[in-house]
Amino acid sequence: MDWALRPNDYYGLVDNTYCIGAQEAKAYNAKESPSNMVDFCMIIRPPLRSPEADCIDEVCKMRPEVTINHTDHDVLCKSPIVVSFETKRSGADHEKATWRGLAKCPNDLPAIPFLPGVIINGHGWSFVASAIKDGRSVLYSEVELGKTSTGFGIITTPVAP
């Protein structure tokens, strides 16, 4: 991911972070949900004191756990998750926690039509999406992005469209 998101070791607006220890913040945790949700994420990381960073700070102040996401894990508190990557298990629980967190946002924020995610099972990478339908989180079918079982797949899968 560094190769795809950090050309020449430059940190751009979109970055990635390893977050295997990330847990849901207490305000968004469902009792039936496991505590570890994702392994790594693509995130928005605006420059400090930029208008985008100031906007994120303002939204965080209005939320129960003072975090932009549904987790209070380190860098994820002030870096909105763009896409989450999870290995070897369904992404449904993570998506439900994210939707619970979004439900606690002020009503004047724009609606998010769906949440993207990537599930990695062995060498297979699949795109998933969840949306709210009739008040419930629905996880839609996986679409294969590629496989990392070959050298070509290792290079092309992380940057698949």
Report what the structure shows.
The protein has 161 residues and is an alpha+beta fold. The protein is built from four helices and seven strands, in the order αββαβαββββα. It has one domain. Strands 1, 2, 3, 4, 5, 6 and 7 form a seven-stranded mixed beta sheet that branches. Helix 3 links the parallel strand 3 and strand 4. The mean pLDDT is 75. This is PD-(D/E)XK nuclease-like domain-containing protein. It comes from Colletotrichum siamense.
Concise overview:
By secondary structure, this protein is of the alpha+beta class. The protein has helices at residues 2-5, 51-61, 92-103, 151-156, and strands spanning 14-18, 40-44, 81-87, 115-121, 124-133, 136-139, 143-147. Helix 3 (92-103) links the parallel strand 3 (81-87) and strand 4 (115-121).
Secondary-structure blueprint:
Blueprint: H1 2-5, E1 14-18, E2 40-44, H2 51-61, E3 81-87, H3 92-103, E4 115-121, E5 124-133, E6 136-139, E7 143-147, H4 151-156
Parallel strand pairs: 3-4
Antiparallel strand pairs: 1-2, 2-3, 4-5, 5-6, 5-7
Protein name: PD-(D/E)XK nuclease-like domain-containing protein
Pfam families: PDDEXK_12
Domain PD-(D/E)XK nuclease-like: 2-155
